[in-house]
Amino acid sequence: MSKKPSKGGAPSLDMTPMVDLAFLLVTFFMLTASFRMAEPVTVDPPSSIGQITLPDNHIMVTVDKDGKLFFGISNAAAKTAALRRMSEKYKIPFTEEQIKKFGGLPSIGVELKDLPKYIDTPESKRMTFKPQNGIPLDSLNNQLRDWISFGGAEAVKIYNDAKEKAKSANQEFKAEKPRYAIKCDSKTKYIFVQDIVEVFTKLKIYQFNLITGLEANPNEN
């Protein structure tokens, strides 16, 4: 016995609502996403088989293959607070707009006297900014030590305040404590890294990460 043919024809699916939803999501992400600025220096770190990742909350010194020093803090609030303290110590003024822009920079490699001009330079031209000779590290002008000292102190203060606030509100606190790190090029001379370690030691910073690229473990099959 043959089946009766359906009078309704083949079923159809209206995709209009899904297309509308897709466009809404794309629009949402375009309006809310923030793009990370490019680093002022590119380094190719030495490789290792270690798998310890760098915490999101960190203070990092980068050394290029020529020994130029760059400094960065992941926490924008700590970064701007450190700039205010550097401005006060070295008597170099910054506008509020410059301080705000500085909070979005990934790292810097210029002397403090050149920093206002560097901040005002368009992002597309910062890679070729002159002079970009690295942050000074010598006995007469040790700006790197002050950046590390002020930046680290501000990052720890923000961490402790957030921890205390969560404790008072009986909330779980999962943020990691600020960590220090050194990132260098595989061709960087050891003496340049040693100078940074000496600065850490004088500031009583005895724990820090060395950033490397991940390679395959030769003991794994």
What does this entry look like structurally?
It is built from 6 helices and 6 strands, in the order αβββααααβαββ. The chain is α/β, with parallel strands linked by helices. It has one domain. Helix 2 (about 75-90) crosses helix 5.
For the sheet with most strands, the description reads:
4 strands, mixed
Question: Would you tell me the structural class of the helices and strands?
Answer: alpha/beta
What is the count of distinct domains? Answer: 1
Helix content: 25-40%
Radius of gyration: 25 Å
Number of DSSP strands?
A: 6
Counting H and I runs of at least 4 residues, what is the number of helices? 6
Distance between the termini: 63 Å
Instruction: Give the overall shape.
Output: globular
Strand content: 5-15%
The average pLDDT is 83
Order of helices and strands: HEEEHHHHEHEE
Strand order of the largest sheet: 3-2-4-5
Descriptive labels:
11% strand; 221 residues; globular; two-stranded parallel sheet; alpha/beta; four-stranded mixed β-sheet; 38% helix; 6 strands
